[in-house]
Amino acid sequence: xxxxxxxxxxxxxxxxxxxxxxxxxxxxxxxxxxxxxxxxxxxxxxxxxxxxxxxxxxxxxxxxxxxxxxxxxxxxxxxxxxxxxxxxxxxxxxxxxxxxxxxxxxxxxxxxxxxxxxxxxxxxxxxxxxxxxxxxxxxxxxxxxxxxxxxxxxxxxxxxxxxxxxxxxxxxxxxxxxxxxxxxxxxxxxxxxxxxxxxxxxxxxxxxxxxxxxxxxxxxxxxxxxxxxxxxxxxxxxxxxxxxxxxxxxxxxxxxxxxxxxxxxxxxxxxxxxxxxxxxxxxxxxxxxxxxxxxxxxxxxxxxxxxxxxxxxxxxxxxxxxxxxxxxxxxxxxxxxxxxxxxxxxxxxxxxxxxxxxxxxxxxxxxxxxxxxxxxxxxxxxxxxxxxxxxx
Length: 392
Ligand SMILES: Cc1ncc(COP(=O)(O)O)c(C=O)c1O
Known about the structure:
Radius of gyration: 22 Å
Family: Belongs to the class-II pyridoxal-phosphate-dependent aminotransferase family. Histidinol-phosphate aminotransferase subfamily.
Bound molecules: pyridoxal-5'-phosphate
Number of strands: 12
Protein name: Aminotransferase class I/II-fold pyridoxal phosphate-dependent enzyme
Pfam families: Aminotran_1_2 (PF00155)
Number of domains: 2
Structural class: alpha/beta
Order of helices and strands: HHHEHHEHEHEHEHEHHEEHHHEHEEEH
GO molecular function: pyridoxal phosphate binding; transaminase activity
Distance between the termini: 4 Å
Keywords: Aminotransferase, Pyridoxal phosphate, Transferase
């Protein structure tokens, strides 16, 4: 970015310039966007189709991979209707959701763990398989929750740097399994890259690796792929291998705030984790959340809608990156990772100061990156204008 531009933006921040004025200036500086579209970005920070209101943030949050399309209108209705049953413990909807997941996954209900977000399951798994002087093998970078918790109770983390393609290096991960390894953590699609591993390669890997210890496959973002069901490792669970496939309602289903996730695994592993996890029947998710998740699970039309909208936004953003000569890692999810030439934190801070858009700066193996969640088109218009300035 030209130093005078950075100075001007920082000066504007100091002067507490209001965003409407900045947007006008940015539109002029960016040249390619119309003022009305930017005004819409300001007025409508979130998608309206599902009937949800504007965001509760006082900024635009493109840093934690929330689904800007929100939950299915049917899920909203189900949650509203169930509020009056809030006095009941959530046993009934818990068991119903569990059975519905089991049926669709082709397993028995005792192979399904439902938790307060998949974080709940990640944490419980780290306690079961990551203690007693054991080690966990994972790719680096990857999603950090299970790794962080495992470290806290003394587990050694064997992190294998990503491959040249910036994907988990499966052969090296396999070769790094030790006698004391209690678990392998693979995130597919990967966070923060948004890349998929080739299905057969991952299947072969899971078959081999699971001879030594359980493999946890975090499929939090799999619903964003059109062929999600053909990419999942669920069939290995059905074959009886010690694989834990973990999913969440926080992403494509737009229920991040309701805290529901689940895992499908062997009956033995489900029992082991089940005895140690926080949720159980009454400990974790609420009645309302569970009913929302049930309705969201049934509404496949909404998931298709979210998937299509996200793809449109992602494709458009990739074209934008091409147009400004910005490298990116092609993604199958609701976020993208961009290698950048300057300090990523400085870029993110400047963008925030200028647009109130929050993105996630990263330093990976000595290289600066930005991880950006896909917003709705209006948010993305504002983002593109900001990036055009801060990346130049
Ligand atoms: C890969 C991955 N797994 C799991 C989670 C946890 O999600 P939740 O606890 O909302 O289900 C996230 C959240 O961002 C994620 O990116």
